[in-house]
Specification:
- By secondary structure, the chain is mainly α.
- It has one domain.
- The protein contains ten helices and two strands.
- The protein has helices at residues 2-22, 25-32, 36-39, 42-63, 78-95, 100-104, 106-111, 136-145, 152-180, 182-190, and strands spanning 68-70, 150-151.
- A two-stranded antiparallel sheet has the order 1-2.
- Helix 8 (136-145) runs antiparallel to helix 9 (152-180).
- The model is unreliable at 115-121 and 202-207 (pLDDT under 50).
Length: 207
């Protein structure tokens, strides 16, 4: 069983490496040099490959999902529902600022051009959910993957995916700093990365 868990960890790490490599700056620069007749399909291809490989690893994880670490019982059963509700709020709230057709890769096909922008607006948005956390989808994803009972297989999966999301958010920060410069740096100083702690702080009184 230990070998299966090690295999699972290796598969998740491999998926994370593949996912990161396909959206790395060198790869995206190379894609931009491809004629638009082919390059405009890259985002869609990336999503398909990511989804298929993710499901493949997930199926393997579920096949060895037998030994429980902990299960929510009694009043603790409310915890998964709370985490799921938090995930839903952050997904919906964050989604209002993003272009789903751009995210899926369909708008690139319509426009016959490639794009690395998720928002598809070419400017830094800081309103709505983005006014209390810089990465609502990352926060929602982390809440979602922990909104369940935890087996050994799920614990391995959750830890690796959580670390990957945190690292991914930091890498995305670098890209945003390169794109928006000082404007994004000021945004970083004003709004937390994941947890909207500032949202619950009392406003400072003006003197």
């Amino acid at each position: 069983m230990v070998l299966q868990y090690l295999k699972l960890a290796g598969l998740w790490i491999g998926w994370c490496a593949l996912h990161s490599a396909m959206i790395s700056a060198p790869v995206l620069r190379a894609v931009e040099k491809i004629p638009w007749t082919i390059g405009r399909f890259y985002r869609l291809l990336f999503n398909v490959i990511s989804a298929v490989t993710f499901v493949a690893v997930l199926v393997f994880a579920l096949s060895i999902d037998k030994e429980w670490v902990w299960r929510w019982e009694g009043t603790g059963r409310v915890v998964p529902f709370v985490l799921f509700a938090i995930a839903l709020v952050f997904f919906i709230g964050g989604g209002r600022h993003y272009d789903f057709k751009e995210f899926l890769g369909l708008r690139q096909i319509d426009r016959r051009e490639q794009s690395r922008s998720l928002a598809g607006v070419g400017r830094l948005e800081t309103g709505g959910m983005l006014a209390i956390t810089r990465h609502p989808w990352y926060t929602g994803a982390i809440a979602f993957i922990w909104a369940t009972d935890v087996s050994v297989a799920r614990l391995i999966s959750n830890i690796i995916l959580t670390v990957y999301l945190i690292v991914g958010a930091h890498l995305e920060e670098r890209k945003l700093l390169d794109e928006f410069g000082e404007e994004y740096r000021m945004y970083q100083n004003r709004v937390p990365m994941f947890l909207p702690l500032g949202f619950f702080r009392p406003a400072k009184r003006r003197r």
